[in-house]
Amino acid sequence: MKNISSAAKIGLVLSLGLASGAFAQDFCNASHSGTKKTVSFSVGAGADKGETGQIGDFHYEQWNKSGSATTDFYTDGSFSCSFSNTDDFLCREGLYYGMNSGKDPLAVGNLVADYSMKTFTNDKSISYAYAGIYGWMQNPLIEWYIVDNWGPASRPNWLGTSQGKITVDGAEYEIFTADANRASIEGNKPFKQIYSLRSTARKCGTISITEHFKAWKQKGITLGSSLYEAKILGEAGQYPEQQGASGKIDFNYAKVYVSNGPVTPTSSSSAGTVKSSSSKGSSTVSGTIDACKDEMGHQGSSKTTQGQNNSSVTGNVGSSPYHYEIWYQGGNNSMTYYDNGTYKASWSNTGDFLARVGFKYDEKQTYEQVGPIDAYFNWKKQGSAGGYNYIGIYGWTVDPLVEYYIVDDWFSKPGANLLGQRKGEFTVDGDTYEIWQNTRVNKPSIKGDQTFPQFFSVRKSARSCGHIDITAHFKKWESLGMKMGKMYEAKVLVEAGGGSGSFDVTYFKMTDKKHPLPQPESSSSSEAKSSSSKTVKSSSSTTAIHAAVPRMELKSGNFQVFDMQGRFLGIAKLEAGASMAQVLKSNYKNSGIYMVKQGSFMQRVLVK
After folding, report:
1. Which range among 180-184, 546-550, 556-560 shows the weakest confidence by mean pLDDT?
2. Which of 4, 20, 70, 114 has a CB 3.0–4.6 Å from the CB of 273, allowing a cystine?
3. Any catalytic annotation for residue 143?
4. CATH of span 302-511
């Protein structure tokens, strides 16, 4: 496509896809976070310059030929680049293994990239632009790309010889190979180029990098034995070179990492695949959930309660770890909850109405002792909810007594007249939350009429699905002097201060220290296979049930049922002489592999 005169500048920018092997944030709408490093320089016409370095866990590089450029690199892996009057410009950030690392690309682990590109230049001065994953291998020397986006015009047709098509992350890619003889990480010399070019461009998604490596090898393409780097890249330039290319590329979210399990595709519109930021380094939670795309629905047995005026009606949700509560003042109201934690609620002509499902605690431990706490949700609402209303996470602590809200949705957004004093703001789960504190004087509480503070985090833009990193809010509140007590509860709530409406939670999952997502299978255990011998995967989630638990002999009794993504489906009752496969087929209809759990014992069951 063009000649490149130094290793730093080489890189056809490939657009990545949105991946998440651990819990990634709601990254299609994420913002830059962490410490920033700004790289800025200018060079004369025809000259080139590059700068590399380390920032946090990631390695960065900026290179341009002619003109000036500036890149802000962040410790969270994201970066924003601008350039003017250049011939060619590249910026990238990701993982760096080094020269002659000896790291086999297929043995470094399951490489994944999550990204969102807020701005991708389409200036008339640009002849070509690319976004995606980029890197080098050595022994033999190979420059490689996974291209998810391009510009400003048509899909690239100059990449080399087609080696066929593959499907990765739910999309079709065409593989190309080419021979090059120019600047490289080893100086000017011949080397091979390998490309995976996506059939349709996107700006947010997951790229399962290792799956491309495997596909290339299966096509008979030789890979290098030493991986040099794997980075998210943005590139733009002008051809023929006239020192005129100007524009901006902004990756508002960018992470390249080694996942501990397989990765499945998440669409570019997803907002629910998440990494718990409160659990870095010590979390027992792992896996992938996309509550905006995964299907759950109301499963298992249901119970409906009309509650009791001016009094709480509470109880356990079947044999699940969840607890429900309904409370109201006046009106005609009800709540229906299901074994998997999903629920429906309706109200009419009420003075105040609350319905919620989640974890109930014993008032003996702090959030740090029971957490990290995370929630995954998808809900729908209709009607009206009076003069005040809150949808999100709700609960209480004791010692001190605190009522708290994390408000992600509403019928009408609550204002300062309801929230009290503004304490600050912070960004988590892809958006900014404003933090407020109010005081209730001699008002109803879980301990009778009391005077107590209310803590609020109110999301700037409402949403109906995704992930809430509950512990992150608690930590932020305490950093602002808003002291939390011992945990009483943490639940998904709808509260209406009047009106007539309904609320339907169609996806619900909460995790904490005691109830983590099941861990991925150990490498020594056999993987679940379908009849075609392909590894069983969900279309939008990849967490597998931990295989290193004791196996059991299935006998009569009640069993918790999970799918292979770790989602709780409900309770199955096995009668003496019956087959668990028959029971599951009867209850859940679909064929496939389920996990059943009784006490500390867990076992796979194949339903045909």
Report:
1. 546-550
2. 20
3. yes
4. 2.60.120.180
